[in-house]
Amino acid sequence: MITKRARLLGEIAAGEKLLREFVELKEKHLQVMRHDLNIIDSTIRMHEIPIDPERIHPIRVQVRGRRFKYGDMSRSILNCLMKFHPDPVATTGACPNFCVNGFRLKQSDTLAELNGKPV
User: Fold this and answer.
1) SS3 content of the chain, % helix, strand, coil (to 5)
2) CB-based contacts of 44: which residues, under 8 Å, 6+ apart?
3) Is the pTM of this model over 0.90?
4) 5-47 pLDDT per residue, tens
5) Is 44 exposed, middle or buried (0-12, 13-18, 19+ CB in 10 A)?
6) Alpha helices in 47-88 (DSSP H)
C-alpha cells in the first residue's frame, strides 16, 4: 500500500505539473492572439471608411478537427462539376442531379483523387 500510495502521489504531481505547463502555454498563446487582435483593430481604424471593430462579431471556430483542409471542399465540388458536367451548368441544374443521383463516385474516388493528387 505504501508503494501504491507513493506511485499515485508521483502521478498526481506529474499531472499537476503538466497541467500548469499547459495553462501557461495557453495563456501565452491567448496573449499573442490578443496582441494580434489589437494590431488588426488599429489597422481597421486607420481605414478611410469608418468601421468600429467592436461591432464585428466573432465567428464560431470548429473545436473538432476538420475532415478537409480549408478550401478543399469547394475545390472538390468544382472538380466534381467539371468531371460530371464538362459544359457550364447553373446551380439549379446541377444540384437536383447531385441530390438525386449523388456524385456517382466509386469508393476509390477519394477527395485526393478528385483534386488530381495521387491516392
Assistant:
1) 65, 0, 35
2) 51, 53
3) no
4) 999 999 999 999 999 999 999 999 999 999 999 999 999 988 8
5) middle
6) 72-84
